[in-house]
Specification:
heterodimer, A: alpha/beta, six-stranded mixed sheet, globular, B: two-stranded antiparallel sheet
Chain lengths: 271, 258
């Protein structure tokens, strides 16, 4: 009845402690909420170290797609392979271990409200990965330095701007040195002026070896930083292409309409 | 109005009784708070991680102890449940244990103390469960998701993320329950537990100084309540304290938008 409640460290069991290939493969992935089909049989592979931007209209299933990777949502069909190993059947310690090795950045930041910026980072290092407090603290400060937030280490989330919170959240996601990091619309909740500072941090991360999957509405990020752009609508992948090709020669009519509306909202055909 | 004779309660045997009763009240309050808090945490865990069975157990516990009079519960523990304990254990508790003397000459390893502390703790835990639960509900869903995504276990999420925030939200009602426990300990006089109310009534039958004795008793309850309320409010977790505690406050949103 209380299984999984009292087992402590997720990092000790063997399976996902180190990924040989930080690849992510969707195989016939199906997700439903009740009668509503969100993803209808997605097939898609992300190579290790690749930066993939997922674009699509609201409600297209793009956030669901990455939330399935670390099982914040559960699959209804198919499987997701990480490091060429199926993950659907994972539970308990093995699942927590996988999650601890995959960074996740939320749209709403979700920093722990009762902890300071540095405590937000060190908590999982101490409790999940078994680091000593001084080591975890040093690592937290190093990561905050990396995202330009070291002066705010003692501040609580409520004292930080949205952009600053999101930078701390990225540092937190990087704490366990994950080989895969997932971004769920990381700039959508930000004031326009603060989007830049977050994108800069993400840019510095791209092509450093970490596999990045980014759900975003930032066309500039997709165009300049992503290796590949995936366009998804109605629960299906309609187009996958390198950014240059995607933005200049979109193939699917739906992609063209989407790009037209997003890139040039004032000059579009009347419906 | 008859002239008040304070000498009748503040000297000799009566003042001894009052002091002893007062300290007994303080000790049983402390024990009751510890029992109530531990039980509340246990049942909250059972509700979060115990599935259907756990949920039913907690619901039964809460409705049973919230909807019956505390005096009846105390009488039940002392006169009924007590007899279900193994005879050797009862016999052991009934004998004298000098090691159980708390400062102020309060013996805690006695049937009366144990039943009172347990009864008060159980009764209060039923209220605490629901109040802390509502505090936990106020913690945003994203907090839990972030912790899940980092690989925390259910117990760790509860202990390190949800409980500290839930307690901060629910702290004022929780302090209210602790104060209630202190005041309700007076009902334990009903099972012959020699706390403050019991001793005050004893003075009344000893020298008929009812008015003076009850006045002193009331004042002691009042002072304890005010002091406890202040201390718990100061020491407890709170949402606003987070802001005050951090060094040099710069609310960055304001300056960056300016």
């Amino acid at each position: 009845m209380l299984s999984g409640l009292f087992s402590r460290s997720a990092a000790r069991a063997a399976d996902f402690s180190h990924l040989e290939h930080a690849s992510v493969e969707f195989r016939n992935v199906v997700k439903r909420y009740g009668d509503h089909q969100v993803l209808n049989g997605i097939n898609f592979t992300v190579a290790p170290g690749e930066v993939v931007a997922i674009l699509g209209p609201s409600g297209s299933g793009k956030s669901t797609m990455i939330r399935l990777i670390n099982q914040l949502e559960s699959l209804n069909g198919g499987d997701i392979l990480i490091d060429n190993k199926p993950t659907r059947a994972l539970t308990g310690t093995a699942l927590r271990q996988l999650r601890s090795r995959v960074g996740f950045v939320f749209q709403q930041f979700n920093l722990y409200a009762h902890l300071s910026a540095s405590e937000n980072i060190s908590l999982a290092l101490e409790k999940v990965h078994g680091w000593t407090p001084p080591l975890a603290q040093a690592r937290a400060l190093a990561l905050l330095e990396h995202v330009g937030m070291v002066e705010k280490a003692q501040h609580y989330p409520a004292q930080l701007s949205g952009g600053q919170q999101q930078r701390v959240a990225i540092a937190r996601a990087l704490a366990s040195s994950p080989q895969i990091i997932l971004f769920d619309e990381p700039t959508s909740a930000l004031d326009p002026e603060m989007i830049g500072e977050v994108l800069q941090v993400m840019k510095s991360l791209a092509h450093s070896g970490i596999t990045m999957i980014v759900v975003t509405h930032e066309m500039q990020f997709a165009r300049e930083i992503a290796d590949r752009v995936v366009f998804i609508d109605g629960g299906e992948i309609l187009e996958t292409a390198p950014p240059a090709q995607f933005f200049q020669h979109p193939e699917h009519p739906r992609t063209r309409r989407f790009l037209q509306k997003v890139l040039n909202p004032l000059h579009q055909e009347q419906p | 109005m008859p002239a008040l004779d304070w000498q009748g309660v503040l000297t000799g045997q009566p003042v001894q009784w009052i002091l002893s009763g007062f300290l007994t009240t303080l000790w049983v309050t402390l024990a009751g708070i510890i029992i109530a808090s531990s039980l509340a945490i246990l049942f909250l865990l059972l509700r979060t991680a115990g599935g259907k069975t756990g949920n039913i157990v907690v619901s039964v516990w809460v409705s049973l102890f919230r909807n019956t009079p505390l005096l009846v519960q105390l009488l039940f523990w002392y006169f009924a449940a007590w007899n279900w304990l193994p005879f050797t254990l009862r016999d052991y508790i009934n004998s004298e244990h000098t090691w159980s003397i708390l400062p102020g000459d309060v013996w805690w390893f006695t049937p009366e103390f144990l039943c009172s502390a347990w009864g008060l703790g159980v009764f209060t835990s039923a209220f605490l469960v629901e109040e802390i639960e509502s505090g936990l509900q106020a913690v945003s869903r994203g907090q839990r998701q972030a912790a899940l995504a980092q690989g925390f276990s259910s117990w760790q999420i509860f202990r390190f993320i949800l409980l500290p925030q839930g307690l901060a939200h629910a702290w004022q009602p929780v302090v209210g329950q602790y104060l209630n426990l202190m005041k309700l300990s007076s009902l334990a006089s009903g099972i012959g537990f020699a706390e403050l109310t019991y001793q005050v009534r004893q003075i009344e039958s000893y020298n008929a100084h009812a008015l003076e004795a009850f006045t002193v008793g009331t004042v002691l309850y009042l002072l304890t309540g005010v002091f406890m309320g202040l201390m718990l409010g100061k020491l407890g977790p709170s949402c606003t304290k987070r802001i005050q505690r951090a060094p040099k406050i710069t609310i960055a949103t304001g300056s960056e938008n300016a």
